[in-house]
Amino acid sequence: MRLFPHLFLLLLVAGLIAPAPAAAAEPGPPTISVSADGKVMAKPDMATLHLEVETQGFQSPAVAAENARISEGLLQAMKKILKPEEKIQTLSYRLVPLRSYKDKSKTETITGYQAIHRFKMEVRDLEHLGTVFDTALKNGASKVDGPFWGHSRLEELQRQAAVAALAKAQRLAADLAQASGLKIKGLQQVSTGLQPFYPRGVETFAAKAAPPTPVEVGEEEIRANVNAVFLVGP
Predict the structure, then answer these.
(1) Maximum distance among all Cα pairs of the chain, rounded to whole angstroms
(2) Complete edge-to-edge strand list for the sheet that includes strand 46-57
(3) Beta bridge pairs of residue 148
(4) What confidence tens digit (pLDDT) does each residue in 177-220 have?
């Protein structure tokens, strides 16, 4: 029975020494957040082509053998015009049945077979790109995709685009600060996102007779984006 007064006293003391609420955090310095894009223009110095050899027939062994014969001829012809730094390799190969879907009331039937051998070719000497096209089409390529332009200095070009984007962001932040009666005092934070470079290409099909293929290499855009936070003050 004597414990209750002591317990009441302990609770009373605990209530008296309860911690005071934490003081509110002081606001940080004023900032301006901006986002900007930057780009550089550069002429491609490399290209990728996708070559395709397609054969069809009623028997799969015969279709595969014919495709192999044409593909081998195409490979030998392309290797003769390749420069030392250029290469060609198999991208994919498939042999599939062709099915008939005309009469839905009947079970589908296999009407033949199709073999497709796709090659990937990297070209560094863009001046002979037209010759590469013509050689491929004259030596069995039933389809050519490309050129897909590329840059051997892509990483450096992306850095240049990011620097251009940051300079643009700084100019925008300075204009916004001036409109508010303030000045830029420093850069608090910056992040960048390099926008992917998607090579562009065209699709070409084999033709029985065609003039020499002209190829014009233009400039490509390399882009980057930055998000920056600038410190401002009077």
Answers:
(1) 114
(2) 87-100, 109-123, 46-57, 143-150, 202-205
(3) 48
(4) 999 899 999 998 999 877 665 555 544 544 444 556 677 777 88
Taking the C-alpha atoms of residue 12 and residue 168, their distance in angstroms, rounded to an integer, is 64
Residue with tokens 């730094």: 85
Domains and CATH numbers, the chain: 29-44+153-234 (3.30.110.170), 46-150 (3.30.70.2970)
Phi, psi for residue 61 in degrees, rounded to 5:
-60, -40
For residue 209, the surrounding DSSP H or E stretch is none
Q: What is the DSSP letter of 59?
A: S
Distances (CA, A) of 173 to 70, 103, 177, 201: 61, 67, 6, 38
Which secondary-structure segment (H or E) carries 133?
helix 129-138
pTM for the model: 0.67
